């Protein structure tokens, strides 16, 4: 009997277990296995793909010093279409009228007013009011809000705040706002850890404007978050290498359009862009920067090139700016101050054209070698007459003297204008033009910077194209031969010319890219490339005449660059002082001479070629040569254990003060008295007209944070005391990181950087 009851109990248990098994199987089938099938049957349910920008690669110097990196920044993004949809739904329930506003449009040439939903009124009522309660509101430009809504609706989120502090971020994440369309997100934001150091080379990034975020780019995305892209400098030049690969998250929405979950199997991880290594040496960049600043130079440039490769080791320009001002956007007032400054801190003077003065006698010397006149002696009687114009040598203007009959090396040493008037005409403008093309003067060198200017190497063809009413003459050739008149050259070009002299005639293309790396592997190497080889047409003996002349400039008692001497090191160089004018604030024409010094060292087996430009200086020997000495001395000392701390550099302040002489406080008394004027200012052919200096301004435009208007500032609590943040509790469908917290200093990465907080 007991066995009978046991059998029934076992049978009942088996039936119950089988029933539960069928129930579990059915639940699995309906809720998991056939989930997508039923989701599609829900009216209005859909998936939305959200684009995740990939973080940019880093920019580093040749030794791996980081010049541009990423950090986590926090944004409040608003899907305006979702805000409007929810507002309409609530208005329909309460039978509330929708706010409208009219704006003026031009259709087929006719102006008319067109009504639209007042997105400002809706935003203020539904979003801004809650932000004020939380103490995280901030003023905004209402026009920006309206234009964005007309242009994109909800396809591209409108960024209400791009500068959340971690405290504000924590407060919003802790308090579930319950606001439709509001997303609080981390984003990879650019940071320049060394501030203004190499700012003109590195440039900055920006976000797309309404035109760049085109329909084509947004195709395939329901929620489009754009990439930063290069706005200036190598950030722009190497943008295709630096930009990361975007990832994607797929969000499931219910019939009311609310997010109900993430489709994890369709998640695509964003990928960081490649790292770009530059030829720059951060130590030498700091040396060049400090040499200009400590020397009291308000406007000028230094370029250091490796003569054996054409690699640019340093390129400094003052005044300068801090690129971090541009991230994520620059205040309108700051942009106006930078862009309208008379000293133009945004201008990279190292790649702009200036009258080069007597430094231009070096490429002219090569032209004479092509013509076979390099050993000829020409007489300096103090002046030369072309047509009806007498063109003086600087020595006659200074003390009424002359240099007499001299050869090429001594003419370089003494910077004799009359010699080069005659020498240049004997060489001929055709050979001058030919040498210019080989050396890269009068045209872009090809350096990887968009703002490089070609300069001007004037010749008959150029004159016909630009001044068709004038005819070329020997006077024009004479003025060109001393780097005056219409001649313009950049410090980069003249540094490249110097490197060619230093290495014996090989003209390397100056370049900034060392290599591109991906996960520690070199994907692009950038070996040196030869622009031209003068040694194919000019003998080593002829080149040595030019080198010897530059040696005498520094080391001979009669040289004009004695202040570039370095104890124990043979330095060769060439001074230059070019006449220039500008108009001051009262419109009065004032002197603003360009003073130059080009040099290389050591004389045998040169390591560095340097060009220095000092604006509004007295002479090349007194102003530019001491800067070059400082740069060469410290760069050469690096191989002997000299240490340069890698520190952030604040922006250098520009000025128009006259620089009579550069003397460093820690350098003691000058090595030699500086008495030369090096006044190689031409006459005869038309000289440069008075201009508002500089002649050009940078064309790149960043993201400008427009000043909040009165409407957008209403009720703003910025700066008020707010409650302290509580620990972050991560909630929301895009949280893939569980309860892990992000610290304020957490670096940007592929994982933690892209977590999204969708608080509804």
The percent of residues in helical segments reads 25-40%
Span of the ends, CA to CA: 64 Å
Average pLDDT reading: 82
Rounded Rg: 34 Å
Choose one word for the global shape: elongated
Q: Strand pairing plus helix content: what structural class?
A: alpha+beta
The major β-sheet equals: 8 strands, mixed
Quote the beta fraction: 15-25%
Annotation field: number of helices = 22
Which regions contain 5 or more consecutive residues with pLDDT less than 50?
Answer: 671-676, 681-695, 715-760
**What is the total tally of β strands?**
30
Describe the structure in your own words.
Strands 2, 3, 6, 7, 12, 21, 22 and 30 form an 8-stranded mixed beta sheet that branches. A 5-stranded antiparallel beta sheet has the order 14-13-28-27-24, sandwiched between helices. Helix 11 runs antiparallel to helix 22 (620-637), helix 13 packs across helix 16 and helix 16 (417-427) crosses helix 19 (474-481). It is 31% helix and 20% strand. By secondary structure, the protein is α+β, with helices and mostly antiparallel strands. It is elongated, with a radius of gyration of 34 Å.
């Amino acid at each position: 009997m007991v066995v009978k009851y046991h059998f029934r109990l076992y049978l009942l248990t088996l039936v119950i277990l089988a029933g539960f098994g069928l129930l579990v199987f059915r639940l699995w089938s309906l809720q998991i296995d056939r989930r997508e099938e039923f989701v599609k049957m829900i009216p209005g349910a859909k998936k939305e793909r959200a684009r995740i920008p990939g973080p940019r690669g880093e920019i580093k110097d040749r030794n791996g010093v980081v010049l541009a990196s990423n950090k986590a920044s926090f944004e409040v993004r608003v899907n305006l279409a979702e805000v409007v949809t929810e507002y309409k739904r609530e208005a329909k329930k309460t039978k509330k009228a929708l706010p409208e506003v009219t704006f003026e449009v031009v259709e087929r040439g006719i102006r008319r007013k067109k009504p639209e939903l007042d997105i400002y009124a809706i935003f203020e009522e539904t979003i801004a009011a809650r932000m004020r309660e939380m103490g995280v509101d901030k003023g905004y430009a209402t026009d920006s809000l309206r234009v964005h809504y007309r242009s994109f609706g909800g396809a591209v989120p409108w960024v209400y705040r791009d500068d959340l502090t971690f405290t504000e971020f924590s407060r919003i994440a802790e308090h579930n706002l319950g606001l439709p369309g509001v997303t609080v997100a981390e984003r990879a934001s650019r940071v320049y850890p060394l501030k203004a150091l190499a700012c003109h080379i590195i440039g900055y990034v920006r976000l797309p404007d309404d035109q760049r975020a085109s329909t084509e780019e947004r195709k395939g995305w329901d929620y489009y978050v754009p990439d930063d892209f290069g706005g200036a400098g190598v950030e722009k030049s190497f943008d295709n290498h630096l930009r990361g690969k975007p990832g994607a998250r797929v969000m499931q929405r219910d019939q009311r359009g609310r997010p109900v979950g993430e489709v994890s199997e369709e998640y695509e991880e964003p990928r960081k862009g490649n790292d770009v290594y530059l030829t720059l040496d951060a130590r030498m960049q700091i040396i060049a920067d400090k040499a200009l600043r400590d020397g009291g130079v308000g406007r000028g440039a230094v370029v250091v090139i490796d003569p054996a490769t054409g690699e640019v080791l340093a390129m400094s320009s003052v005044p300068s700016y801090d690129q971090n001002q541009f991230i994520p956007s620059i205040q309108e007032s700051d942009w106006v101050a930078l862009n309208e400054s008379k000293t133009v801190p945004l201008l990279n003077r190292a790649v702009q054209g200036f009258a080069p003065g007597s430094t231009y006698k070096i490429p002219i010397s090569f032209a004479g070698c092509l013509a076979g006149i390099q050993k000829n002696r020409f007489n300096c009687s103090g002046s030369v007459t072309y047509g009806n114009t007498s063109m003086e040598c600087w020595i006659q203007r200074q003390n009424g003297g002359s240099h007499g009959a001299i050869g090429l090396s001594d003419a370089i040493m003494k910077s004799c204008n009359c010699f080069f008037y005659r020498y240049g005409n004997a060489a001929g403008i055709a050979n001058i033009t030919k040498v210019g093309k080989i050396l890269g003067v009068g045209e872009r060198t090809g350096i990887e910077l968009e703002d490089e200017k070609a300069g001007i190497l004037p010749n008959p063809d150029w004159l016909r194209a630009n001044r068709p009413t004038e005819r070329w003459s020997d006077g024009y050739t004479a003025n060109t031969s001393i780097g005056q008149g219409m001649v313009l050259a950049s410090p980069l070009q003249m540094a490249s010319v110097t490197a060619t002299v230093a290495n014996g005639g090989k003209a390397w293309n100056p370049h900034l890219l060392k290599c591109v790396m991906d996960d520690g592997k070199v994907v692009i190497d950038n070996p040196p490339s030869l622009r031209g080889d003068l040694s194919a047409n000019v003998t080593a003996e002829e080149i040595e005449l030019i080198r010897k002349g530059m040696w005498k400039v520094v080391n001979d008692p009669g040289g004009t660059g004695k202040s570039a001497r370095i104890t124990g090191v043979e330095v060769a160089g060439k001074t230059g002082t070019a006449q220039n004018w500008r108009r001051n604030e009262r419109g009065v024409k004032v002197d603003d001479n360009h003073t130059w010094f080009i040099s290389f060292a050591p004389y045998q087996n040169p390591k560095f070629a340097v060009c220095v430009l000092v604006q509004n200086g007295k002479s090349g020997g007194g102003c530019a040569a001491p800067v070059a000495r400082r740069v060469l001395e410290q760069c050469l000392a690096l191989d002997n254990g000299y240490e340069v701390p890698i520190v952030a550099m604040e922006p250098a302040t520009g000025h128009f003060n006259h620089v009579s002489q550069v003397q460093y406080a820690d350098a003691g008394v000058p090595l030699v008295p500086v008495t030369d004027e090096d006044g190689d200012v031409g006459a005869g052919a038309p000289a440069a007209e008075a201009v508002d200096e500089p002649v050009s301004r940078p064309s790149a435009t960043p993201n400008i944070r427009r000043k909040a208007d009165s409407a957008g500032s209403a009720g703003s609590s910025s700066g008020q005391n707010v409650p302290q943040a509580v620990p972050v509790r991560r909630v929301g469908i895009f949280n893939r990181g569980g309860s892990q917290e992000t610290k304020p200093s957490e670096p940007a990465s592929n994982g933690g950087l892209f977590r999204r907080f969708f608080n509804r």
